[in-house]
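Justification of computing resources. Each target in the renewal requires a structure prediction run like the one illustrated here; the chain below, 118 residues long, is used simply to show the kind of job we budget for.
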Amino acid sequence: MNALQSPAAPELAPSGDGLSAAAAVAAPQVDAVRLSSLRPGQHAIVLGLRMPHGDHGHGRSLVMRLLEIGFVEGEPVRVMAVGPGGREPLAVRVGGTMFALRRHEAEHVLVRVEEVRA
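Resulting structure tokens:
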């Protein structure tokens, strides 16, 4: 266990293994939720990425893909729509670009929900 983790905290992508520093969250955030838990239309800010448990090399690839798409710390994000039955795919706008994510991919993006002022 490293300094970024507590026994109950999710495993965070480390910044010292070749991943971008944006992949790590400085400390477990009390207000952090998973992108997959947002309702369509909710605005949020990316806090970081969570490394999948039991990683067999696939988790690193997933985290790298999410970083390349633009899920970096401080980036605005919003779930625009969800698939049939409220499941998959999730249409997600990150920055100025729209992407379709599977729910299991969105579970690895940690965000802070933002209140939108009219």
